[in-house]
Specification:
The protein is α/β, with parallel strands linked by helices and about 625 residues long. It is about 45% helix and about 20% strand. The chain has a six-stranded mixed sheet, with helices on both faces. The chain is globular, with a radius of gyration of 29 Å.
Length: about 625
């Protein structure tokens, strides 16, 4: 296989913190490689160096001639003055420039320009690429191509940056946490796309299903070494355990042998002979080996939870909406002890609103929410990190408690607790601003759990947490005696934790589904397959219609089409009314930024649905 990218003896230090030293790795053509390491070891920095964005303190990066690299960063670098379509097609590729001109001509309804550029599209054989680009934009829900990138939300910017990288079809794709800020449907599409792409792939991800299904090789970065595993995530877990067992056995054997060698060194005469020098040197090598400690990445999370009373949280006929948008409608539910609920649904369907209703951050428009007297919420928010970055790590924890009590009755100091959270004593007095994004998330999780909650609400807890921390968090949540409500796009995490799902279907509808995410997806896929079978059964009816057209030159509406036509008239009227209300609310400029953003998102969807339904109405009206 041809090597595309090679890093040799790479070292990087950030201030006084050593991230990695003398790391070497090679990426070969056709590989789909995942890089795994705990937070704070410099994964993103290593990708920056390999992509050429950052330079190493020592070492060399070699890129094979003419290899085109596409790099998707955690924090996208976009031109805020560009429109979405201008940002997408920033490229020297002639086909992409032509497709950009074609899309702009369509957007401006310039028929003369469309015809002119269509000839160039034919000449360049660019139509297939144009179709694929539209598919990528559609799957990532990038709709408003004329919007300025500076007006986009963080999630929209991430999706735009991802689309931009995929559209350019690089030889080597470098992706840093590509599933963050994607909903479940987008993740499953991206998973399929990357499986089929011919591009070589190097990525950092904590999504274990994604990793398992896409990658054929895993690189683990630990203790300034790279361990290579030829296989997917399941294979990696098996072989990593074997490696750890072998390392531990080697250290144990060295310690046993060291005892014998120490006795020999003590008994040895002062005048050491030349023949014994090799044994003396071997003694010191053995001493170093015996002193090795395998760094156990397990985070012990058995913090004691507050006592739960009989009443947990009860919702009765709860409704909540913003102007023109129903988010929750007449929802009734009583939470039970030790219940674990997953929440799924498209963006803008009310998931975060629901969490804020439970905790009292928002009040319902109607209905009643009763919270038991013993309930103590622990709320892990996506945007909940509010540390003073000039504060030291230890101070952020001791502000909550100096000692933490565990389920078995033992107590632990704040410093010991931080050590369990992979913050060793020498880093506890570092300033928070020096922590990586994942380390800040881990510290935030620590502070939430230390408050002794019995009702945990976790809003996207898997973002930026490494796989080692996630594994232990999952084990903790499985045995947690209180209630857990979790919003997550991490399917592995959801499958392991939740008993059932609240499915947010839009327009205020919430369905209680009895099972985890995989069971839910299997049900949806079975229903879709059934629809296909029913569609095939309708083929004779279609042939009869085609025969009627062939004989008479026209045909009448079928019974089902008449019903559809009547329904469309009602739906179009409702959408027009909602569009009017939404536009009025946006034009008023009143309301919070988040509310206005949701309204703008909804308006785009309304317009798209109106276009689709009006087109279908015209088709049917011509037949009627």
């Amino acid at each position: 296989m041809r090597p595309l990218l090679q890093g040799e003896n790479l070292s990087k230090r950030w201030s006084e913190v050593l991230l990695f030293e003398n790391i070497s790795m090679t990426i070969f053509e056709g590989q789909k490689v995942a890089l795994i390491a705990r937070n704070g070891t410099g994964k993103s920095t290593l990708l920056d160096i390999l992509s050429g964005k950052e330079t190493a303190d020592n070492g060399k990066v070699t890129i094979t001639n003419d290899v085109n690299i596409g790099y998707f960063e955690q924090i996208p670098q976009l031109n805020p003055e560009h429109t979405v379509i201008e940002e997408i097609f920033v490229s020297d590729n002639e086909k992409l420039r032509t497709i950009k001109a074609f899309e702009l001509a369509i957007a401006k309804n310039d028929q003369h320009k469309v015809a002119e550029i269509s000839a160039k599209m034919d000449e360049l054989n660019a139509w297939d690429i144009e179709v694929e680009i539209k598919q990528i934009l559609s799957q990532l829900k990038i709709i408003n191509l004329e919007q300025k990138t500076g007006e986009l939300s963080g999630g929209q910017k991430k999706r735009l940056a991802l689309a931009k990288v995929l559209i350019n079809k690089p030889d080597l794709l470098i992706l840093d946490e590509p599933t963050n800020h994607l909903d479940l449907e987008m993740i499953e599409w991206l998973e399929t796309y990357l499986e089929k792409t011919k591009s070589t792939l190097l990525m950092v991800t904590h999504d274990r299903y994604f990793l398992d299904r896409v990658c054929n090789e895993i690189l683990e970065m630990e203790d300034n070494q790279i361990y290579r595993y030829q296989g997917n995530y399941s294979y990696f877990l098996e072989k990593r355990d074997e490696r750890i067992e072998m390392q531990q056995a080697t250290v144990t054997k060295a310690k046993n042998l060291l005892r014998t060698e120490i006795e020999w060194m003590r008994r040895m005469p002062q005048a050491r002979s030349h023949k014994a020098k090799y044994r003396i040197n071997a003694f010191y090598d053995l001493k170093d080996k015996a002193a090795q400690k395998y760094q156990n990445d397990a985070v012990t999370l058995n913090v004691k939870s507050a006592r739960l009373g009989k009443k947990i949280v009860e919702l009765e006929n709860v409704s909540k909406e913003f102007p023109g948008i129903k988010l929750v409608e007449n929802f009734t539910y009583k939470f039970s002890r030790a219940e674990k609920v997953g929440i799924i649904g498209d963006n803008g369907t009310g998931k975060s609103t629901f969490l804020n209703l439970i905790t009292g951050s928002l009040q319902p428009d109607s209905g009643l929410i009763e919270v038991g007297q013993t309930i103590k919420f622990g709320y892990y928010r996506q945007d909940g990190i509010t540390f003073d970055y000039r504060e030291r790590v230890i101070d952020a924890v001791t502000k909550i408690a100096d000692f933490i009590e565990f389920e078995d009755g033992t107590k632990m100091s704040a410093s010991q607790m931080l050590t369990h959270f992979l913050f060793p004593p020498d880093t506890q007095y570092n300033f928070i601003e020096k922590l990586s994004g994942g380390e800040q998330r881990r510290l935030y999780l620590c502070t939430v759990l230390m408050q002794n909650p019995n009702f945990l609400i976790l809003d996207e807890p898997t973002n930026d947490l490494d796989i080692m921390t996630l594994n232990v968090l999952e084990d903790y949540l499985v045995s947690f005696g209180g209630c857990v409500v979790v919003v997550s796009h991490d399917r592995f995490f959801m499958d392991k934790i939740v008993d059932h799902l609240f499915v947010f279907e839009g327009n205020g509808t919430i369905t209680d589904f009895p099972g985890n995410y995989t069971i839910y997806r299997n049900k949806i896929e079975a229903e879709q397959e059934l629809e296909k079978i029913q569609a095939r059964k309708k083929e004779p009816e279609k042939k009869a219609i085609q025969s009627e057209i062939a004989q008479t030159g026209k045909r009448k509406l079928t019974f089902n089409e008449k019903r559809e036509f009547e329904t469309l008239e009602t739906e179009i009227a409702q959408l027009e009314a909602e569009k009017s209300v939404t536009e009025e609310a946006l034009n008023s400029g009143n309301g919070a930024h988040d509310e206005l953003f949701r309204l703008s998102q909804r308006l785009v969807i309304i317009k798209s649905q109106l276009d689709e339904k009006e087109l279908r109405w015209l088709e049917l009206s011509e037949l009627g």
